[in-house]
Amino acid sequence: AWLPQHPVQHAIPSSLHLVGPSFIFQQNNDPKHTSRLFKGYLTKKERDGVLHQMAWPPQSPDLNAIEMVWDEMDCRVKAKGPTNAQHLLELLQVCWKAISGDDLMKLIKRIHQECAKEIFKAKGGVYFVKIHAPWNVLCREAEFMKLKMPTKKVYEVKQSNSIVEKISTLISKILEPLHPHVEEHQPKNIKHLSHTFSREKQHLDVFNTFYCQLTYFSTHTLTHTHAHTYNICEYLLQLLYEEWANYSVFYKYQPIGLVRKYFGEKIGLYFAWLGLYTQMLIPASLVGVIVFLYGCATVDDNIPSMEICHPRNNITMCPLCDRVCSYWKLSTACGTARASHLFDNPATVFFSIFMALWAAMFMEHWKRRQMRLNYEWDLTGFEDEEDHPRAEYEFKVMQKSLRKRQKSQDKVNTIEKLTFQDRLPAYMTNIVMMLLMIGVTFAIVFGVILYRISTKAALHMSSSLITRNHVQLTVKTTAAIINLVVILILDEVYGAVARWLTVLEAPKTDKSFEERLIFKTFILKFVNAFSPIIYIAFFRGRLVGRPGSYLYVFDSYRMEECAHGGCLMELCIQLSITMLGKQLIQNNLFEIGIPKLKKLIRYIRSKQGAFQEEERQKKLTRYETDHFLEPFGGLTPEYMEMIIQFGFVTLFVASFPLAPLFALLNNIIEIRLDAKKFVTELRRPVAARAKDIGIWYNILRGVAKVAVIINAFVISFTSDFIPRMVYQYMYSPDGSMHGFVNHTLSYFNVSHFQDGKEPMDPSHFGYPVVICRYKDYREPPWSNTPYELSKEFWAVLAVRLAFVIVFQNVVMLMNDIVDWLIPDIPKDISLQIHKEKILLVELFMKEEQGKSYIIDSSTSADGKENCSKHNNNSKVAPPRAQMVMSHSSRHPNRFILLR
């Protein structure tokens, strides 16, 4: 709502935007540009060229140009600034009240004729207009919007004598140093009751008295009061900077109430969600570090690693590539095997189950936190307003109507809308482009695969021994860095493509537009970020073939295979580089650098405009300085980066238990970085009410459910957990892991190599090799079915599939139990809501009783007056009820005083 003490100011660069609740007018200085009128609300910057809204509530009080007062009865414009703004006066003669379409179009044409040649001859410059709404208009709109207002009297709605409350108070005292020094974090047991605003009951509201004290004064006093109000806003901004947008207070809780008070509920909910998510990462990080330390502590006791590293196990392995690669000893993979145990150990299974339950706990905790904030911010009964049609949608409907009238010559006005048939070309374009973008991502992943294969062959041909010994590490690291660079570039491209496709669909409302944009952006960026990781986790090393019958790409590139320790180590490297790179480069460096760069470019462009020299050299006012800040682009990028991070934390956590720790360290910086950006780098966004985080919650739930399935497959097929368990309980002679490495290696006769595929140096070790080993479950060459899959392979595969089914169902059942055990509404909030309803009923009953008492008293007085026979009765004052009601119709807020 536009509050009188917070006038809306609009920046008008080379054009004028009259923004109100009933219409928007835009006129450009281009003579080819025609005036367009779009009824309805427009609260977001439209980027497709139809409308370009430049309005934003600035953070400064010192407006010194034009004060425009909108009134339903008359229109008046008061010049309070320099005389050079006089040419704006005639243009601003537009009434607040609704005007019929024909009259409004005539008015616009008259404004254009009289003022366009004055306004649009100005060379550059920015004009600022302050718009006020009268009190009666605000009251009417508040009733339509069903705004909740606090009562004057405070009531005790929270019981403080229970054991739980005492424990909570004790914990609050212990955590007092972690709370910011703001008032809303102090414990309170009293509260102003909130009820739907009504003009008949506005005398009960605390805001009515506050409004009268600030607004109804003379012009000079009004200006001073507004300045005082803005000083309050500046104080809030300064408090936010000191207690929120400051890196030195990283260990403190966020002043969410203050954030909501200054930026609105929608932004307040985002930072509340981000704070809770970061807080929940603390236990996940601790458990992840414990799992990692367990792997470090048990690496020397791991029997498979000991067998690989033991020099007596002189096992000759088959070449890793054709011709240029020679035979190699298994003991050279000692370092990789030991490093793999850090992430591939029995504790990772426990950690996967823990993280699945952690995700469920996080969802339930957020629902409870969200309900608590809804109660504290008076959003419990809030319902989303019916969205007005978007300007682009109405423009296309108007074009459709014009085409239909031209064809049928029918002058009857019918309500048109875009049907499925009208949108079918856009839908087909969306499907084709989405598939094309996903195909581009897969093609790039395939290109990186070819890079790995070719680079590995080239490095094996190097004459440097150091280079040949570090081929695997070099290829893995460089390929991961290339994937990171491609991901960062495609993220920006996919964001623009998703917006273009959404604009092409022409959704009817802003909410529908935002949801479709979020869905497309999430799909494209999710595929872009996780397709290389999914390839390494589930496909690499499984489409290789065997020695003598390898699978080739383009008849020359042999598909790459995993190291003997498995692909889990490479998966961990890819995850760590992608996650850290996105967080450090994209999320933090870009968020700091790009707004500052855009601000500098905008400032330089303003200096290069056609301003007069003295105008350039004079000191800029605060609101002019704020105009150079970056416009607020919405919360979608902020949520998106956190959702992708949530995917890194939950989807492949079985292979990277340190992911929650890296996410926690990033988010500690991210909160203060976002806060600093909102306070110092961005224009103050228009406050928007919201009771939840919208579609993002459903995306989080979907990611959490997919994470259970993916972790089940990672444990079963990517790690060696299942083969180890099968060997220990089915094939080990003594029930231990001794002999596991030899059990997983198959035999190959080197004479069975295809022509031209054998190593160029078969006597690399000084003697000819007859038999080499490779990792697979296949029959030996001397069996009746040489190189066929063995029964051990089918036994391991059966156990793997069984584990996936059992793991998935058990974990999801546990998630459902957690969801059932934890109520969505905290018990104390439920009791307070119930008690508040009772108190409101009592308050309104007392109000009605007071009115009845006054009416009865006035009726009794009328009876006595009729029965009296004295001549002086004609001098008696009018009945009290009539006097009270007449005053109530004029000044409803004085009803209690008269009673």
UniProtKB/TrEMBL annotation:
Record localization: Cell membrane; Membrane
Secretion signal, residue range per the UniProt entry: none
Ranges annotated as spanning the membrane: 270-294, 347-363, 431-453, 473-497, 517-538, 642-665, 699-722
Domain Anoctamin transmembrane: 259-836
Main location: membrane
Topology of this chain in the membrane: Multi-pass membrane protein
Gene Ontology cellular-component terms listed: plasma membrane
Entry keyword set: Cell membrane, Glycoprotein, Membrane, Transmembrane, Transmembrane helix
Molecular function, one GO term: protein dimerization activity
Database matches in InterPro entries: Anoct_dimer, Anoctamin, Anoctamin_TM, RNaseH_sf
Domain Anoctamin dimerisation: start-end pairs: 121-204
Family of this protein: Belongs to the anoctamin family.
UniProt xrefs under PANTHER family: ANOCTAMIN, ANOCTAMIN-1
Protein's recorded name: Anoctamin
